[in-house]
User: What shape does this take?
Amino acid sequence: MIADLGYFSLLFALLAAVYAVGAAWYGHKSHNERWLESARNATLITLPLTALSSALLITLLLTNDFSIQYVWRVSSIEQPTYLKVTALWGGQAGSLLFWNFLLAAFTAAAMAHKWDEQKPLMPYAIIVASFTQIFFLSLSAFVENPFARIAGGIIPANGNGLNPLLRHPGMIIHPPMLYLGFTGFTIPYTFAMAALISGRLDDTWIRTTRRWTLVAWLFLSLGLILGGRWAYDVLGWGGYWGWDPVENASLIPWLSGTAFLHSVMIQEKRQMFKWWNMFLIVITYLLVIYGTFIVRSGVISSVHSFAQSAVGPLFFGFIAVMALFSIYWITKRREDLKSEHTLASFLSREAAFLYNNFLFLAILAIVFLFTNYPIISELFTGERGFVGPPVYERALAPLFLLLLGLMGIAPLTMWYRTSLQRLGQAMVWPAVVATVTIVVLFFLEVRLWAALLGVWTITFSMVLTLVEFGKGTQARMRRGENFFTAFSNLMARSRRRYGGYWIHLGVLVMAYGVIGVELYQQETQRQLQAGEIVALGAYEVQFLNVMQRPGPDDLIITEAVLDVYKNGRLVATLTPRREIYTRTGQPMTIPDARSTFFEDFYVLLAEQPTSPTAVTLRLFLNPLINWVWAGGFIFVLGTLIAAWPDPVEDKITAVRARQRPAVALTGD
Assistant: This one.
């Protein structure tokens, strides 16, 4: 009964989305406000229907209804309650349903927000958003039905349980963050298409969707950071990023979305880059669908992806349809997308943002090409090739270095034109500080030229960014405000600008961590008998013994006990372990680490121990790894500041929307 109700709720949501498209089209053609209101209501009702369907699937998981195929695959009687709930996104069918719920939530919120202010765009926005919703709802209803029953009518006594890799706390939060980021980017795309179809190609759609874009970008960023932490804690890579295809599939739309966030500022300030901004948001939307395709089709092997599925060709077809649809409207409106102003100087803020965009897209192109290299090589040679992390790093390091340098210089530039002399004067002291820093590091025996160049660039940009905070705070202190009042008012009055600077600081702190790990990571692997010692850097590890014990939910836990010494002093006892889920035989490696502000000493079991007195250990010394996580925290803080509602700015946007002349809903 519960499963039937869940499935019918899913079908009704699909019917509501189809109705929304038809009602919006008819209301637009007949200029009938009642039909447009009805179309909006249909998009709103999709949310409670998908929420009900999701809640009913969770109920089936909590009540151990193993007559449902999905429940049998991802849950078990012994599984803790919190994991039964998160099993909603632990498999293909459930995660697609969850995706539909989040997409419906974003769409409903966008349609309910400022309906009267943006009414000329809304019919087209409803049609585009609902069409995306129809595709995903159709997948859930007809291809990956989460309520499908087990064939044969024989109900298993227990289920397989959730994949052990998905039981980490990071995986409880990581997938929802990515899904929120992916589904959130459909909103700016929806309004971009609405602007193209309606012919309202000023910056209205950008102002309308600015916060939606920031929120989507924040969630996608969080998903990437949490995914890195999950990989570090569970996969046994010894690091946070392995250039895995599914990791890349999330990074790629983040890159284009970041370029879009920077580029739209130029359209708002100077009415430039209209065509370019349309291109960026279209490519971001298509890459979101592409990323979902990579995860769910199994077309490229990955530790993150779901098994091969029939949804692959359907995703490919949908991407093709939406690409052709977008290209048609951009081509049709190409004359209207011409910029009102041209680039006055290659040394200006407009130019700096354009260079920023080119760098992001160059990085995107390389990651996209390398990620799809297995498919490309198989197509032309019949054999699947592979691009490893060292190739990515060598190809991308120069581009990331340029991007970090530009991050500090861009805020110094002026609109229209920047004096080279003024720019040079502003960079003198940051360059001096950066140079002193690498000289000190050189005398501390940091001799790798790549590390010194990277630290110089990061320090240079960081000092420039901190100077911007200092200048703004000092300007307010001259009005009589104390330091803390001046600084807080600076954040409150210029949230978008200084939130962006906080984001830059977060990225720069993360970059220090990346240099530490990528250039100075030490690694070794040794087989030890009880009592033997292995050294790495300033650390020594003495293997004591192996213990085995049962864990929750049919887990067998095998852990090694190790004493860790640094410079001859005992600093930690670590217990890296391997877990085997006996029901399916799936193994999982859980490392242990001694963490400090400056480094992690990270140990994992390279093989399953077969004796209590012998073990094979893999050791990593990861300098500055925790700076990656600290920078991520600053990054998120900055995004929250930039996205926080500004009543004054919202009022200005609303006034501008009312002042614009109405446009007939003809679509021509």
